[in-house]
Design brief:
The chain is built from 13 helices and nine strands. It has about 375 residues and is of the alpha/beta class. It has two domains: about 60 residues; about 280 residues, 3-Layer(aba) Sandwich (Rossmann fold). Strands 5-2-1-6-7-9-8 form a seven-stranded mixed sheet, sandwiched between helices. A two-stranded antiparallel ribbon has the order 3-4. The longest helix is centred in the first third of the chain and has 41 residues. It is globular.
Length: about 375
């Protein structure tokens, strides 16, 4: 083959490759524009929502991403959010103290474990400031945040403490460089709880707490057993549990219980690796702890179809007081479409959107 023919062939291949690249870019642009145009319609499709969640979960299943859905990046918030975040931390802390019965008078010397600390270690620090001897926090998805925003957050939280609380706070956290003293506050990131029990110490904690965490763990039994092993005889667990769909369907205009209509094998593909709600019911948690010999109490804090929480958490929901006849009618309309394991549950259980579960280990 002559050099001229070779040159002609190379030129033809180059032009073909260039045309393929241009066509690919064109299709991507058209696809992106088309997606934006069709997005409102697509997101109103149940099938699209299911497929989208399966895709997000698969990326995390492969280890290509380690965050939760809805927590795609740790964006630096504006400093104006700090007062609200501190208020939230304090409300969670007060809830733990109220339902555990652990107040400042009996906090001294106590060891506490928090599962799923989230973006801040505010709750562990408040326990320590009130006299706890040691707190361990574990979070699978969120590393300890050390950016400028969190320096301001921890400094502002400290400034709200009384003079006698601040030395205990300072023992656990150096606010200037955000370093932790593991003798007081031990934080573990990215590890599964069942593999940590021997390292942390069996039966070495007086109180185990979590806030909107248990529902995010698909294979929950090993985690419940690990918590039970960490807790001392006579110790207490306090878990706030969200029984809703995290907006998976609701925010797109579907019924609050639409996520309970998805077949189990499909739903598993949607949530197993991404921290989406595992859709366990109130009775599952109550029975799981009772089966381990714990005494349990369950307090409902929110009811589906209602924007605001209940004025006071309730152990029993009452029609006409906590929910309406219209709520029952809406529930009755979707009930035939629910998966079999949910279809026959009492109205009051399906209406419970979030609960506080208190479980006490026998002596």
């Amino acid at each position: 083959m002559s050099p001229t023919h070779h040159a002609t062939l190379r030129t033809g291949l180059l032009r073909s490759s260039l045309r393929a690249v241009i066509l690919g870019i064109f299709l991507l642009v058209i696809g992106a524009v088309g997606y934006q145009v069709c997005k409102p319609v697509m997101q109103s499709s149940r099938t699209w929502l299911i497929a989208s969640n399966i895709g997000h979960d698969y990326v995390r299943r492969l280890g290509l991403r380690k965050d939760q859905i809805g927590q795609s990046e740790f964006v630096e918030p504006p400093l104006t959010r700090i007062p609200g975040q501190i208020q939230h931390v304090r409300s969670v802390y007060d809830m733990y103290r109220k339902y555990s019965g652990m107040d400042r008078a009996n906090m001294a010397g106590k060891r506490i474990f928090e599962l799923g600390t989230g973006l801040t270690l505010g709750v562990p620090l408040l326990f320590l400031a009130d006299g706890a001897a040691h707190v361990t926090g574990v979070d699978k998805f969120v590393p300890f945040q050390r950016t400028s925003y969190y320096q301001h957050f921890y400094a502002d939280l400290r400034n709200q403490l009384s003079p006698d609380q601040r030395p205990r706070y300072d023992r656990a956290l150096n606010v200037k460089d955000l370093t932790l003293n593991s003798q007081a506050l031990n934080f573990v990131y990215g590890r599964e709880l069942p593999g940590l029990v021997n390292e942390l110490g069996p039966e070495s904690y007086d109180l185990v707490v979590s806030n909107a965490v248990l529902e995010e763990i698909y294979d929950i039994n090993p985690v419940l057993q690990a918590q039970a092993r960490l807790l001392r005889p006579g110790g207490t667990m306090v878990h706030e549990i969200d029984l809703g769909d995290y907006g998976m369907f609701v925010k797109h205009g579907f019924d609050s219980l639409e996520f309970l209509t998805v077949p189990e094998w499909v739903y598993r593909l949607m949530v197993e690796s991404s921290g989406q709600p595992a859709r366990r019911t109130l009775s599952f948690y109550r029975d799981a702890f009772a089966g381990m010999g714990y005494s349990t109490e369950v307090f409902v804090t929110r009811v589906i179809y209602h924007r605001d929480p209940l004025p006071e958490p309730k152990t029993q929901l009452v029609e006409g007081v906590d929910f309406t006849a219209a709520d029952v009618r809406q529930l009755s309309a979707i009930r035939p479409r629910l998966q079999p394991q949910f279809r026959s549950l009492p109205d009051t259980e399906l209406l419970a959107q979030s609960v506080i579960l208190v479980a006490r280990k026998p002596q």
